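Supplementary notes for students who missed Thursday's class. We covered one full example, reproduced here. Read the sequence, then the structure, then the short commentary at the end.
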Amino acid sequence: MTDKELFSAAVKAAENSYSPYSHFRVGAALMAADGRVFTGCNIENASYSLTNCAERTAVFKAVSEGIKNFKAIAIAGSSTKDFSKPCAPCGACLQVLSEFCGDDLVIILSNGWFKLSDFLPMKFSSDSLK
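Structure (token representation):
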């Protein structure tokens, strides 16, 4: 799957967003090491702290299916139908991604691709507890 196809899958996932409060739809498409793709969308809640981001939805879907190795994630977000502006992952999503991915995980946004380490150069890990 190309970067463009993975990004298109993220845009399509955003169609399922439940975002009645922010009106900002986000979709994510997470490619596993074996090539399977897991999508997710943001799911808001009236109690804002219970909202779940698209990236974490995709990761949790994959992990619940026994998949824990990933190559890339595409993220698309917009309050309109135009997904041309980049929508970077939040810190919580970056930390969750870092649990299952190396620093070289590819993050595909509308303006190009980056590595996880570009966004989270000093991730928290269990090694930090030793």
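Commentary. The chain has a mean pLDDT of 96. The radius of gyration is 14 Å. If anything here is unclear, bring it to office hours.
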